Amino acid sequence: MLNDPYHRLQSLSEVEVAVRLGLVVDVNRASVDDWLRLPGISIRQARSLVSLTRAGVQFYCLEDVAGAIGAPVEQLQTLAPALRFCFYDPDGAELPVRLDPNLASSEELANLPGVDSNLAQAITHNRGQHGPYRDLADLQQRLHLPPKLTATLLHHIQF
């Protein structure tokens, strides 16, 4: 579970073990992959939840999540221990701007920490030549980024 960030939990007992290991989902910052780790969450539901949070919607309780995906609250009850409902001030500096490297201009990319104008140009050029990046690992491999820079970008880009 700890070694595979994409391991999909299969049962309530696995959810309980994951919670004991500290693997919880912050519902207001979760990625599609985070949601898909949870049993019973479909790709459509995960995408819908992420789309809503990116649009500024915040979930305050299990009922909010259930309503957003059109599921009965009882269906999500077993996941409750694995979910964290944290409030983030939309006007505060807590939420960094995250860019999609498949859509951002080289000027926007150059504003990211550790990305100079040459690297920003390389990102957009490679994207144009070889198609969109699948994920951060693909970006790192295609551009031969050092691990430290990749770790920094992890908090500033999204796909």
Structure description:
This protein has 159 residues and is mostly helical. The protein folds into two domains: 12-84; 106-153. It contains nine helices and two strands. The chain has a two-stranded parallel sheet with strand order 1-2. The longest helix has 14 residues, at 117-130. It starts with 11 loop residues before the first helix and ends in a 6-residue tail after the last helix. The model has no long low-confidence stretch (mean pLDDT 89).
Give the secondary structure arrangement, pairings included.
Blueprint: H1 12-20, E1 25-26, H2 32-36, H3 43-54, H4 62-69, H5 73-76, E2 83-84, H6 106-109, H7 117-130, H8 136-143, H9 147-153
Parallel strand pairs: 1-2
Number of domains: 2
**Which structural class do the helices and strands define?**
mainly alpha
> So what's the overall shape?
elongated
Q: Major β-sheet, in short?
A: 2 strands, parallel
Helical residue percent band: 40-55%
Q: Average pLDDT, to the nearest integer?
A: 89
Main β-sheet, spatial strand arrangement: 1-2
Low-confidence stretches: none
Radius of gyration: 18 Å
Distance between the termini: 23 Å
Strand content: under 5%
Number of strands: 2
Give the count of helical stretches.
9
Order of helices and strands: HEHHHHEHHHH
